[in-house]
Amino acid sequence: MTARPEPFFSWTARRIELDRLRESESAVLVLDELVPLGTGTARLIGMRDDDADVDYLALIVGDVANGHDIAVRGVDEEALLIEGSRSETLPEILIGLRATPSICGCSSERHIDNQLCVDGPVRTMIAAVGVRSVVVDWYHATSAVA
After folding, report:
1. Do the domain assignments include residue 8?
2. Nearest alpha-carbon partner for 61 in 26, 77, 37, 32
3. What is the tally of structural domains in the chain?
4. pTM to 2 decimals?
5. Which residues 6+ apart lie within 8 Å of 42 measured at CB?
6. Widest distance between CA atoms in the chain
7. Above 60 in pLDDT, residue 7?
8. Is the Cβ–Cβ distance between 94 and 58 less than 8 Å?
9. What is the pLDDT of residues 65-96, one digit of tens each?
10. How does pLDDT run across 113-129, given as a tens digit for each residue?
11. Does residue 110 contact residue 98 with C-beta atoms inside 8 Å?
12. What is the pLDDT of residues 11-43, one digit of tens each?
């Protein structure tokens, strides 16, 4: 019996494996456009969760097809393209966060983290672009106990 390698895990981040074939079959991207970004281009994708009546946006910076351990971070929706042009980590996926509380009443960052760890529209949207695994920073300074 061969031991499976331990998944990437640290005090501040976790690796999430995506089952691209299963999840991408059900993904319906309502937005999939190439956008000019600095000296290159990026891919702006969007998905609608009809059950919760919520739209999700993500900016794919760099080539993520069949990529492993792609960094994912949340940024303000209104600054998505600006943050993408400042990206120093390539490839990277930026998830647009809203200023208002999420459906579950928790912070938008926590809501996105939860959707990536369990099946949710954000996980499905990212899997649809061909990513194999992502690394999510799951410790947020705003959630630390003082």
Report:
1. no
2. 37
3. 1
4. 0.77
5. 34, 35, 59, 60, 61, 62, 81, 84
6. 50
7. no
8. yes
9. 888 989 998 889 999 999 998 887 789 999 99
10. 777 777 778 888 888 88
11. no
12. 667 777 876 545 444 567 899 999 998 778 899
Task: Give yes or no for a contact between 134 and 93, defined as CB atoms under 8 angstroms apart.
Answer: yes
Residue 4 domain-assigned? Answer: no
Task: Evaluate whether 60 touches 91 at the Cβ level (below 8 Å).
Answer: yes
Query: Which strands form 54-61's sheet, in the order they lie side by side?
Result: 13-17, 133-137, 70-76, 92-97, 54-61, 40-49, 29-37
CA neighbor of 58 nearest in space, from 107, 7, 8, 128: 128
117 located within any domain: yes
Range of the domain at 54: 13-140
Closest by CA to 29, choosing from 129, 112, 120, is 129
Q: Is residue 2 part of a domain?
A: no
How sure is the predictor about 60, in pLDDT bands with cuts at 50, 70 and 90?
Answer: very high
- For residues 29 and 47, what is the distance between their CA atoms, to the nearest angstrom? 5
